[in-house]
Every structure is written in structure tokens, then in C-alpha cells.
Amino acid sequence: WNVSSESEALKQTVREKNSAKALLGLTSAILDLSVAMEALTVKLLGSRQTPLHTRKILWEISGESAKKILGTKLTKLLTKKISIRLGAQVASGALLTGLNIYDAWHAWQWNDPSIYGYLLISMGGLSGTFGSIFGGAAIYLGLNPLGWAALLLIGMGISVVVMLSSTPLESWLANGPFGESNSIDLYLQDSSEALYRLISLLAGISITIDKNPDYETQATFDFRAEVPHAIRSADTVIRLESRLPGLIGALDSVSIRAECRLNKISAVTSNKGLPYQTKTEIVGKAESPNAQRIHANSLELFFVTPNQHITHSLKWAVRAQFILTRNGEKHYFPAPPVKDDTKYSPTFSKPEFTKINQPFWADEITHKAKTND
């Protein structure tokens, strides 16, 4: 399930930026992890083992040759012994620099003030790259001056990105019909598409899976009861909420398509019988609810959840799509994020339960209701 979630995050990056950015970002993350794991391995092994293959010298730069290009002072600081580890560090720093320069350009195209944070991070990556190349500089607390500069710049950059990144609504205002247009956001200049995206931002679509407060363990048929027997005999209520009815007025109509299936969650154990991860699989077909209850801004679906087992547990997976009909034209919610120009097509007509954050479909994880709503 975690792999599926990360895979969908990668696909979202492809849709908002491009496949090269997503692939290089993944490569950079793997390279950073490899460098960190190598350093940890060396620290744990200490002097008890022969040097790792990654630390062996592959190539040594001649001091005389370096002097002709860099001069005497820089040659003294230059790391002349080249190993796999050093190459990985330089490549990692170069990738960090390049990726954040691209992110800065992307932020500029979207009129996003986080551009300054990405520029700081790219400067930090550049500083770290030169810190590895000129490793002969004085070391202070494990890092040379360029290393400390890299750490400071990257830390500042991340803080700026977190604080200044535009919210989806701010991105819409800055790039929609009333904002500045760039080649990357031309679809938001179309008034119909811009209104569709704005309604989706304000729709507040959420999914709640909860215990049914009206549930009775021994529910019996009682024609005088205020709550129908089908609701009282269901132990689980799935609530699909949105502000769409209040946003569109009486002239338009909203319908909801929903599918609910059971997830079987079981523990994967090691040879010693210790659980080390969980496995999630979809059980059976879409379930029909015991009952439905419609409110002004929500639809409640009532289900009976099977008893839990010792070896596994069962949880509900929900996929919902809100369909707004305006002047005979259908609009599907939730719409993709503002920076994603994906258009609806028959490809998205059916929900997929092996992934989350599917365009035009709400799910119980991505659209989980917030407690302060």
C-alpha cells in the first residue's frame, strides 16, 4: 500500500511537471539514500573490516596538472583521490542543484513566491558539490566551510518553500482569469475550465468512515421506531460530504457515484514469526449498502462490517465521484489539482481500488474528513 501511495505521488509529479523531473527526483533520492547508508555502514564497521569497495581509489588527479588549471591555492584544497563515494556525492549535489533550479522555474511560471526557497536549495546543492570537490578545506565539526554553507542554505530554502508556497486557491487567483497568464497555465484562462476548477477547490469533498451511532446489536423490526431497521442493523456509516449543493444553486443538479469494497489487511511475518509489514488486498466486489440517507450536503451509506479475525482485519475502501450537470454539460468532481491540466475522459469512468488519488475520484485516504471541518 505504501508503494502504491508513493507511486501515485510520482504520477502526480509527472502530470504537474514532466516525467524527466519525476525520474530524476527519484534517482536523486535513491542516490542520497545510498550515500547515507554507505556512511552508516562504514561507521558501524569501524576499523574491523577492510575498506569498502566504495572507498577504494579509482583515479588520482596529478597535482601538477591541477595547478595549471586551478592554481596553487585551489589545488591544495582539491580532493585528488577519486572514489565511488566521492563521485556519488558530487552527482547527488549536482542533481539537487539542477532539480531545484527546475522547481524554481516551475514556481516562477506559476507566480509562486516559493521560487526563492528553491533558489536557496539549489545554491546549497552547488555549495555541497564544491565542498566535496574541494575536500581539503579545514574541517569544523565534521564539515568544511562549504559543507556548512550547504547545510545552512538548504535548511533556509526548505523553510522558505514551506512558508511561502502558494495554496491551491492562491495559485488559481494568481494564474486564472484575473491573474497573470504564462504558457504553463493557459487552460486556466478558459472561463468554463477556470470556474470548474474553482468550484472543485471550494467543494470541500470529504469521506468519513465511522461507527453508526444508531446501531443496535439486536435490532428488531419495529414499525413505530423513528430509525428504520436497515439503519439500526448496520454497524458502519460511510458519509460522503460536499458543499456542491450550496455552491451551485437550484438550477443545476448533483449526483453521486460511489463504490465501497472491503480491504483485507494482514501482517507479513519473518522466518521468526515477527510481523515486519502489512499487506493490503481488495476482497470481493463492490458491496451494496444496507440503507442510504440523504442530507442537504451529504449522503450516508450504511454497511455491516464482517467480524475481525485474528490473522487479519477488514477496512472499507471508498471511491466516490460527484457529477454536476450544468446546461446539459457534465462536470466531474473532485477535479485534478490546479497545476494539473488533466481533462476528463472515459479512462477515468471507473474507480481503481489498487491506487489512491485517482483523478476525478475521491477516496477515504486523500479526502479523509478533517476534524476541524
UniProtKB/TrEMBL annotation:
<keyword id="KW-0472">Membrane</keyword>
<feature type="transmembrane region" description="Helical">
    <location>
        <begin position="115"/>
        <end position="140"/>
    </location>
</feature>
<feature type="transmembrane region" description="Helical">
    <location>
        <begin position="146"/>
        <end position="164"/>
    </location>
</feature>
<keyword id="KW-1133">Transmembrane helix</keyword>
<keyword id="KW-0812">Transmembrane</keyword>
<protein>
    <submittedName>
        <fullName>Uncharacterized protein</fullName>
    </submittedName>
</protein>
